[in-house]
Amino acid sequence: MSTSRTTLAHLVRSELPKCAGNLAFVLGNGINRHAKIGYAWTEMISSLVVKYEELQPGEIDLRSHLDSISHTQIFDLLQLTAKADNEEQFYALKKEVASELLKGEVATDVHRQFVDAMRALNCPLLTTNFDLEFEESSPEVKKFMWGNSKRPHKPHRHANAKLRYWHWLYPWSSYASDRELVGDVRGQFGIWHMHGNVAYPGSIRLGLDDYFGMMRKAKVWTRQLKDSPFRTVLENPENNAYYSWLNIFMHNNLVVLGLGLPDHEIFVRWLLLKRFEHYKTFSSDPRPNVWYVDLKEGKRSEAWVKGRNAFFRHIGVKVVQAISYKQMYETLPKYHLPTLARKMHRSPNR
């Protein structure tokens, strides 16, 4: 099976215009690194490990293994240590992470340009980031922060807000937008946090147990309906799943950028597998595209990158070559996507 390759400019000019009303972007922490803001996970984890080792002397020794154990496993080990004393300590750990994320929160033009582009395209923006940089960067979104959340409580969101006001979890149907979303969310602008966000510290996915819990929920929501072998729970408007980010991820054409997706990032990889399985085995509909944007392969020759791209080949993910990070995070939202939006609005199919 050969790898499908195209350039980012070609993708925007020739492929995305065919996706009007059925397109979504999935962004990871790469945009924060490009904007030189946010958080350094390694330093944050190191400080948490030191703190927990001081609370539980002799129980755990992780400091010398931070380079060889994945971040998700580090958090699970800290959780086990916390449970030996008090189960609420792991929630306290998540609140600490949320507080650290808030300290580095800065509204930037890079984030605002992506939000403006998604609004112009009327396109969902999914993110694996916990922070609220996208929301904070857009005055229009800040005024209408939490949209049609099913919870009666809307969290107080400010860098100085006390965590006692914030909720444990948040529904997958919770979004941020500049307006109320009505009906099918797949063709409307909204910002969706796949891995939780700092306004709900308990929703932040840190350890393997967290991600396995999300897989269990997603598996229920992607089950086939008894009355139709070609439809899932996600496709039934009577279920909350229909109004969730998972419906967007499973059914829209996706452009993915800013996500490294090494083999320990199991949840998004698993979702891509389930999506491929659904269209190959159960659905009678054509399989939507997934485009993964990365730098030209000559600059990314690490063994894990080659392994990831081999994984992509087997599930039909198309690798798109970008010239530079500037093209990915600045030229794309500032110039390419607004041009695409104008082209789509002129399209006779709309």
Account of the 3D structure:
By secondary structure, this protein is of the alpha/beta class. 43% of the residues lie in helices and 9% in strands. It has a seven-stranded parallel β-sheet, with helices on both faces. Helix 12 (303-314) links the parallel strand 6 and strand 7. The longest helix is centred in the C-terminal third of the chain and has 22 residues, at 325-346. The radius of gyration is 20 Å and the shape is globular. It starts with a strand and ends with a helix. The relative contact order is 0.16.
Largest sheet: 7 strands, parallel
Shape assignment? globular
In angstroms, what separates the terminal alpha carbons? 35 Å
Helix percent reads 40-55%
Low-confidence stretches: 147-167
**Which structural class is indicated by helix and strand composition?**
alpha/beta
What strand order characterises the main sheet?
1-7-6-5-2-3-4
**Cα gyration radius (Å):** 20 Å
Q: What is the H/E string? A: EHEHHHHHEHHEHHEHEHEH
Q: Find the count of extended strands (DSSP E, 2+ residues).
A: 7
User: Which strand-content bin applies to the residues?
Assistant: 5-15%
Total helical elements: 13
Rounded average pLDDT: 81
